[in-house]
Design goal:
GO terms for molecular function: DNA binding; sigma factor activity. Belongs to the sigma-70 factor family. ECF subfamily. InterPro entries: RNA_pol_sigma-70-like (IPR039425), RNA_pol_sigma-70_dom (IPR014284), RNA_pol_sigma70_r2 (IPR007627), RNA_pol_sigma70_r4_t2 (IPR013249), RNA_pol_sigma_r2 (IPR013325), RNA_pol_sigma_r3/r4-like (IPR013324), WH-like_DNA-bd_sf (IPR036388). Pfam families: Sigma70_r2, Sigma70_r4_2. Keywords: Sigma factor, Transcription, Transcription regulation. It is a single chain. By secondary structure, the protein is mainly α. The protein has 2 domains: 88 residues, Orthogonal Bundle (Rna Polymerase Sigma Factor, Chain: A), CATH 1.10.1740.10; 68 residues, Orthogonal Bundle (Arc Repressor Mutant, subunit A). It is built from 9 helices and no strands. The protein is elongated, with a radius of gyration of 18 Å. The termini are far apart.
């Protein structure tokens, strides 16, 4: 389950829609850490993540009246709506500073992207350091796919790339992450 999966009472949303600053502050506090964490994982930089957090929350504040909720059981939960804004903001910032990555995604055979992570992945600090060494686009795809549960189709749409780009970045990133997390096997 995503760290965004926080049930926000309809009464709190109604107060926020009505302009109640205390209600919005409560929403901000509940979602500050998940938005920041997501942004760091996608952008790879704490300063960028802070900007993503601020832009996301500003958009939530100005657009909360647009959120219709899931009162009838068929719509998106608030946390899903907010998470989508955060992902879009992080990817938009990533696109705006992205260097021209020339990923040749058509000629590479894809590894199984559902392979379990290496045992070292249990060490969150080592995983964070390894993720930081990956190119921005690769890190974003890995995070969106494995941590946030997005499909290749959704990632392709969000990143304005092809499905094969998403798949190749996931395969390449997975291989590189395994290398970074298991350096002793690289020397054998």
């Amino acid at each position: 389950m995503s760290s965004f999966a926080i049930d926000v009472p309809e009464t709190l949303l109604a107060r926020a829609r009505a302009g109640d600053g205390a209600a919005f502050e409560q929403i901000y506090r509940w979602f500050e850490r998940p938005v920041f964490t997501l942004a760091v994982r996608i952008a790879g930089d704490r300063d960028e993540a802070t900007e993503v957090l601020q832009e996301t929350m500003l958009k939530v504040l100005t657009r909360i009246g647009d959120f219709r909720g899931h009162r009838d059981g068929s719509g998106t939960p608030f946390w899903g709506w907010l998470r989508q804004i955060a992902v879009n903001e992080a990817l938009m910032r990533l696109r705006s500073r992205r260097r021209h990555e020339h990923a040749d995604s058509e000629d590479e055979h894809l590894a199984d992207d559902r392979a379990p992570p290496p045992p070292a992945a249990a060490d969150a600090a080592a995983l964070g350091r390894a993720l930081a060494q990956l190119p921005e686009a690769t890190r974003s795809v890995l995070w969106l796919y494995h941590a946030e549960g997005y499909t290749h189709e959704e990632i392709a749409t969000l990143m304005q790339r092809s499905i094969s780009f998403s798949k190749s970045q996931l395969a390449r990133g997975g291989r590189r992450l395994r290398q970074l997390l298991e350096p002793e096997q690289a020397h054998a």
